[in-house]
Amino acid sequence: MLVKRTLLALSVLLNLTLVAYLLMSDNGLRNYQTLKADTYAFTQQQDMLDEKAYMLSHEIRLLQNDSDYVEKIIRARLGFVKSSEILYIFPDSKIKIPVGVHE
């Protein structure tokens, strides 16, 4: 009977030691929670980068295949105008349009 109680006490002590180790050590619960949070953050960042890559590949396809889109981009970013158009730039405008060359 004494042997059983001693073994029981040793097993309880061992279990308590293991639980304390899991909670307090560097490889324990704190590290697991940190790794879990890091994994979630990396997953979110990967999703954002995947979306950006999709949008960029879509824009590349438009630039390669859609001449109307190319003209729109050239006009918006570079301020180009056709020879039959007049570009008005107002001094109090907050939007700065670069002066372009006629086509």
Textual characterization of the structure:
- The chain has 103 residues and is mainly alpha-helical.
- The protein has one domain.
- Helix content is 70%, strand content 0%.
- The protein is built from three helices and no strands.
- The chain is rod-shaped and about 105 Å long.
- The termini are far apart.
- The model has no long low-confidence stretch (mean pLDDT 85).
- Keywords: Cell cycle, Cell division, Cell membrane, Membrane, Transmembrane, Transmembrane helix.
- This is Septum formation initiator.
Give the topology, please:
Layout: H1 2-24, H2 29-65, H3 67-78
Keywords: Cell cycle, Cell division, Cell membrane, Membrane, Transmembrane, Transmembrane helix
Protein name: Septum formation initiator
Pfam families: DivIC
Describe what is shown at a glance.
This protein has helices spanning 2-24, 29-65, 67-78. With 103 residues, it is an all-alpha fold. It has one domain (2-78).
Annotation, overall tally of beta strands: 0
The structural class is: mainly alpha
Q: pLDDT under 50 segments (min length 5)?
A: none
How do the SSEs run, as a string of H and E? HHH
Query: Termini separation (Å)?
Result: 102 Å
Q: Determine the mean pLDDT.
A: 85
Major sheet details: none
Strand-residue fraction? under 5%
Bin the helical content: 55-70%
Radius of gyration: 33 Å
Q: How many H/I helices?
A: 3
Pfam families: DivIC (PF04977)
Protein name: Septum formation initiator
Keywords: Cell cycle, Cell division, Cell membrane, Membrane, Transmembrane, Transmembrane helix
InterPro entries: Cell_div_FtsB, FtsL/DivIC
